[in-house]
Write a structure and sequence with these properties.
By secondary structure, the chain is of the alpha/beta class. The chain has helices spanning 41-50, 64-74, 86-98, 115-123, 169-178, 232-242, 252-263, 265-288, 310-319, 343-353, and strands spanning 28-29, 81-84, 106-109, 127-130, 153-157, 184-187, 208-213, 226-230, 292-293, 300-304, 322-323, 325-326, 336-339. Strands 2-8-7-6-5-3-4 form a 7-stranded mixed beta sheet, with helices on both faces. A 4-stranded antiparallel beta sheet has the order 9-10-13-12, covered by helices on one side. Strand 9 and strand 10 (300-304) form a beta hairpin. It is globular and about 60 Å long.
Amino acid sequence: MNPSFWSPLVGTLKPYVPGEQPRMAGLVKLNTNENPYPPSPQVLAAINAATRSGLERYPDPESIELRRTIAAHHGLQWGEVFVGNGSDEVLAHAFQAFFQQGGAPLLMPDITYSFYSVYCDLYGIPALKVPLRDDLHLEVSDLVAPPATVVAGVVVANPNAPTGIGLPLAEIQRLLLLHPDRVVLVDEAYVDFGAQSAVSLIEQHPNLLVVHTLSKSRSLAGLRVGVAMGQRHLIDALERVKNSFNSYPLDKLAQAGAQAAYEDQAYFDQTRQAVMHSREGLALQLEDLGFEVLPSQANFLFVRHPACDAGLLAAGLRERAVLVRHFRLPRIEQYLRITVGTPDQCQALVEALRPLLPA
């Protein structure tokens, strides 16, 4: 490595570390919150059809048909929808578009999706982190700045990651009213697994931006499609940033597959209900094994065992071909985040845990 050619910023960055993507066969992979079920057959058919013509041409840079489909699904106008190459890219554009406010800090919980802090470092945005309560719940009234401090905006994940705890819609509305003059970004990556979406508040609140992903509830983590929804002036800002960075973020296959995923509502409902059913059953099994399990409205559980070190449990599970996520971070170093798999995968996890726990 020769950092002598780097820009000064590069050496200061602490990049996001994604969950392990193993190259070994036969692992029970419960570490990156992917959907355990494949995408809708309609998605595969749409992608297959899209491969047969037009790949020599650039895709629609505005993704109009996909945006129309998403807008119709949520009761919006297509100009109130933005799409990008995964929700991480959408978030990156939002941080540039709204939160670079002359050195003002961005409000966020101290325990949340760690990419928010990475983007703050990348774009030179100070982060003002508000501690979650001792039970790892977020209290909206805590998300305020000290007196005389003007903030750049607010970002929250709802349900929160990695805790899985969701805020009711009334609390999101209260947060919007606390910060009427700044953008409040609500990252709803896991909202389809039992939480309340804030999309219904968009018409009332010009400062609300809601971000979704197709990686979780629509089983398209490998396709990379993210969505932002808000009033037209917010979407216009995102378009300006996007078209100053990459005018063609979504290829033709991604647009076709994503559109088909929204059109197959029955499959979407079937698979997300299956995940939620497995989540409740797994939570009960883990509690029977002595784990403390946080209430989750996501496709994962955040758990700890009072008699076992989380790092040792994660290592022991890996030796037994089961992957879970362990964060070596303050306040949560004794927790494991466990993606909800199929019933067979959840049972394999439980059986792998038994010999690692005290009798």
